[in-house]
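Fold it.
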Amino acid sequence: MNKLIFLQTRPIIDFSKMAEVGLRVQERLSQYDFANLVVTDENVKEIKELRTTLRKEFDLAESTRKTIKKEVNDPYTQFEEAFKENIAKHYQDADAKLKKAIDDVESAIKQKKEDEVRTFFNELVTKHELDFLQFEMMRLNVTLSSSLKSLKEEVDNFIKTVLSDISLIGSQEHQERIFVEYKRSLNVSQAIQKVIADVKAEKELIEKQKQPVQELIQKMEEERKEVEVTEILTVSFTIKDTRANNIKDREFMKQDDYAESRICTH
């Protein structure tokens, strides 16, 4: 391959005098002392003309650089296009076909492992009545280097952890609610903490809802006491008897303090 593709003539660019030219340019420009240059209304036209002159000089040099670059790059561009069409394409097509064939075989191997592990997982789920579990919850990474033994051990440890979590949940006060939360995340501590926080928030809300009612009842009771008055009735009656007996009756009633306080004399 190296004998078919080779560099026949090395590009030669003569820039041996570039450093010398650069020094002359630097020396010429230094006379303007650009760092301390002061532009005024009087000299602005002259400064603009200087800038135009310098830009023309640089544009001429830049044009020369671009021309040389194109002359050097053109042969390589033609070579690169021919290389891609006649050589690279064939190798790349062959590599893509080989990659697909390898990927298909390796995918089949990994799928076979996953199917066996999934079957083992479902057997444990059925055995322990954990029907809320799905194989995908494990996020098991099945690779070519993974052995069936190690994968099954991961599954077994996963199921044991779930059983341990369920046992812990069973000892909690709000186990049914915790279990609902647990099934969503499979994080037992997080589920317990969330339910405890929810229950606390619910109790606080109930207390807040009770408070206005209690305050209203208390206020109504106070208002009732304020408007409550004792109704006083004046009862008059006439005793028809002799004068002597009337005097005796009056003396008898005076013997009772309560009655006396309510006797009105006319």
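Residues 16 and 22 are 11 Å apart (CA to CA).
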